Structure formats: C-alpha cells, structure tokens
Fold this protein.
Amino acid sequence: MNSSIKNALTFSTVEPSGGLRAAMDKGRAEIIAEVRASGIRGRGGAGFPTSVKWNLAAAAKSDRKFVVCNADEGEPGTFKDRVILSEYAGLVFDGMTIAAYAIGATTGILYLRAEYTYLREHLEKVLAERRAKGLLGQGVCGKDDFELDIQIRMGAGAYICGEETALIESMEGQRGEPRNRPPFPVDTGFTGRPTAVNNVETLAWVACIFARGADWFKSVGTGKSAGLKLFSVSGDCKAPGVYEFPMGITVASLLEAVGGQDAKAVQIGGASGYCVPAGEFTRTIAYEDIATGGSIIVIGRERDMLKVAENFMEFFADESCGQCTPCRLGNGKLLEGIHLLQQGRCSMQYLRELCSLGETMQLASKCGLGQSSPNALLSIVKHFQSEIMGRIPAAAAAARE
Ligand SMILES: Cc1cc2nc3c(=O)[nH]c(=O)nc-3n(C[C@H](O)[C@H](O)[C@H](O)COP(=O)(O)O)c2cc1C
Ligand code: SF4
C-alpha cells in the first residue's frame, strides 16, 4: 500500500472493470441518468455537476469528440490524484471509458502533470493491458458501436495549465493561457470539438458508482454534496497523508482524525482556498459550506499568518499567466503590500486599499486563478485582525495605549 494513504480507500474494494462492464450494459442516456442520480459533482475544485457536463457534451454535434482526464494536480497541498494514478489507474481509465461512451467520444487524453513524468511508464503499461483485454480499441467490451483509445499527454509545468481551457491550449501546442468562456469546452474544446474535461478523482468515483450503484453514492455525504471525497492533508499535524472522508465532515472531525486538533487555522482548498480559523472548526467541508478540491493545510499555533499569506501570494505572482491586468498586476501588488506590512511600513488606509484590490481581482480577473488568488490574504486579514494590526505602526501603538 502507498505509505501516504492513511485510511482504507473505497477504491481498494471495487473490482477492476466491474463498474465499466456494468455501465456498458446500459444505454448512453441511462448512463448519464445514473450519474445524475448519484449526485456526483466534479472533484477538481469547482464542483460542477458531472451529469450536466456530460449531457451538454453528448448533445453537441461534431464529427469527433474528446474526453480529457485532468491530471495536472498543481494546487499547492494537493497530492491525492497522484495516489489514485499510482494505485487505481484502472478505475480512472474505466471512468474515462464510461464518459467517452456516454458523450460519444472516440479519443481519451490523460493530461499528466509534468512533475509526474515518473508515472507515465506505469500508466502506459495499464493502457497496453487494457488494449490487450479489449477494454480499448474497436468494439470496447464487445460493443460494436464503441471505439476508443486513450493517450497520455505531458503537462507543461505551469499551475495555469490545470485550468481546463488553458489545458486544452497547452495540448494544442500553444501557450497555456485560459480562453474566453463561452464557448465552453463541452461545445468548443480540443481542436474546436466537444470535450468533457474531468478530474482524476471524479472519473474514479464514476467507476465506483457503476460498480456499487448511484444509491450507494447518494446515501453518503449531504443533500447537496453527495458521496465520499479524498483529502490531501499536509502541514502541522501528526499524520499527514491522503484520507477518504464523507462530504460534509466538520473541520474539527477531520483535524481529530489527522492529529491536528491544536491547529490555529486550516487552509482549505489549497493556496487558492480559504483560511479557516479555530473558531470556525465546526463548519463543514461541503459545496454548501466550505468547498474544496481536497487540499487541507493544517496551520499550527506557532505560525506567523502573514508569512502564510506571503507564501501563497509568492506562488500566484509567479504563476499568473499575465494575460489579464487584474491578475498580472494585482498579485504583485498584494505581495508588495504583504512585504510593507512585514516591514511595519503599511498604513491602515493602504491595508484597506489592498483588500479592495483583492476584491476587484476576485470580480474582474479572467479565470479562476486571479479570481481566487486573493482568498487566502483576505481571509487572513479578516480572521487574524490582531496579528495583522500588530504590523501597522499606528494601530499597534493605539492597542498599547
Ligand atoms: C488555475 C486553475 C488550476 C486548476 N487546476 C486543476 C487541476 O490541477 N486539476 C483539476 O482537475 N482541475 C483543475 N482546475 C479546474 C479545472 O478547470 C476544471 O474545472 C476541472 O478539471 C473539471 O473537472 P471536474 O468537473 O471533474 O472537477 C483548475 C482551475 C483553475 C482556475
Ligand atoms: S486571471 Fe491570471 S491566470 Fe487567469 S487569465 Fe488572467 S492573468 Fe491569466
């Protein structure tokens, strides 16, 4: 077993290709109906309902369609897709095959994070075995009307290439820069054709849903957030690693399971997520409360919260693709503001302007990177006021009087 897996994963109990064979007994519309009944939403972060995406791609008219597995996994603090690809690649390919059949695609592409190049040999071997078993090629699983092959394309080593339209640009050999949306990839995706892009974990769960039934998946989690979820847990806790929990788990219960009860805060959703203070640990991890692609970074009592914000903002200032002004200039300005705070050279008025800039970036940036990059700083300023105000000379002096 991979040493970073901390509790038993449902994936280990599902028979390889069991879900695929069960799905192949159904018609295309029935498959999408089963995915809808399960309530599954994308595990890549945005939480878009998988059945809605597949329905749109299935309805689009084209000579050719594509299914893409997003294995770019670039969000800081996320490493669960690496574990799934290492241990349960068969389930991911089952999910891609089910998606391809449902939408009428003949080509699947797994876009693999450049840093995961070492996994390519293993994944190619699994694909070769599937071709030999008739799980790929002409007449998949004995279905005369279904032809599919799956290929692997290497990522470009940039965080932005995980954003689905930048990923498609990168696969086409262009710079990885997000496209204007609409049109959406389900309509105009890879080479201008309908393309369903799904996260690694989403596709693996789809295979489990067909192996165990939509009702099983729906019975776990909350009304709006069905099923189980993998979490990449890192930071100041006793047992970091990959965990499976039901959606809707409270932050407190998760921290107890990983030995992080004494945390001062938890960054949920990676660098682009929110910093949740100890006073809010009763909140739940679910689309209706705190949504996440699965990154949980535990922040211990000794940590300097401004240093935490600096760390994330340095990442975004580096990773902005530079295409739109709010993000290209905004991340640099926010980082500069953090440095001024650290040097005791930031006024109360300037801090307000920094927060207002962050809010403008959330509204005006072209893609999810710039829309979410201010989240960590803004939530740290909101929840750790005394720590931040202590860096503003006038506010610190007033507090001492
Ligand atoms: C900057 C940025 C980076 C992203 N990185 C990833 C990633 O590494 N993996 C991923 O699955 N989704 C990533 N996404 C989300 C994708 O654009 C897309 O929503 C997702 O792959 C859809 O799959 P799902 O519906 O199964 O979640 C990223 C989005 C943004 C804005
Ligand atoms: S928000 Fe940032 S990453 Fe996204 S398009 Fe604009 S500059 Fe590029």
The domain at 10-218 is CATH 3.40.50.11540 (Rossmann fold). The two ends are 58 Å apart (CA to CA). The longest strand covers residues 147-154. The first helix runs from residue 18 to 24.
